[in-house]
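Kindly review this record before class:
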Amino acid sequence: MVFDAPPAPSAAHAWMPSSPCGSGCIDSIDQVGPARVAARLAGVAGLLLSYPIAHAVTPRGKRAPLQRGYARLLLGSIGLRLRVVDNRVTAEERGVVDEGDTTLAPAGFGAAGRGVLIVTGHISWTDIVALASVQPLGFVARADMLDWPMIGKLAELMRVIPIERESLRQLPGVVAAVGARLAAGERIGVFPEGTTWCGRAYGSMRPALLQAAVDTGTPVQPVRLRYLDRHGVPCTVPAFVGVDTFGSSAGRVLRSRGMVAEVVLEPVLEPGPDRRELARRCEAAVRGAASSRHETTEWIEAGHTRVQDPSVATVAPEVRRPRRVLRGRRNTAAVRQETKA
């Protein structure tokens, strides 16, 4: 006996990434008082108002330290500290950076003037601030981010490459734009999952945007990003998932106490000729031995229909993209055998 799979969240097309993470994934955490929240908001407002002026009066060649400094200050203003772990060096050389809000991390994603594609999982809007605090870079991000309060203007100045996830027709243009920026020697960050997850669960990395690195022969920097509470335990408070609005997510972060954004730089990968194989290597580097909390459901693929094994209990299944018809035929036979049994 098999059951119909729960309906996936509504999407504009069958290949649009979606996540089962929601409010049930969000942890509770120690909070600061209203006065501290107000001070943090004032600090954020001051930084966002002053940065465009500082950006305009700073010579182009000296903007990188300015951008990184402002990102670090902004990260501190929203209540997050930065920790950078560099796994690209030997154990004897490896350093962990865990400084105050105004001390810049010595580690970076790549040498100046050489393009690099930064690949990481996607948890929240805070990911952009955390990564920019390590080294200035551009991003591929959801197009409506440019309209968000506080973050929108910063995203515009960081030259975010907007992507409309609902429109597959725009994807080749986005890949071409990323490739052109990489060929020009820029650092570009992408989130191949295509949507946000809670940080304990994650989705598959889609290979489409990685084609830009394959086309240009650009090295890829995998980054393992997570958020920790004041006790060093992974937490999901910054996650921007489910029915969250930017306001509700930002309020939760601003009220948090003692959170740390940990950025782990894994060994650099050469792109190779196959974007799908590159996506698998990136996912292995970013995930390590971690397992997804939403990967407790066993799914039987039957053509374009997913059915759930009723012997496996689940709360929120991972939404997967449809398989190819040829694979579906083989799996249909397996379903028939399971049904007969």
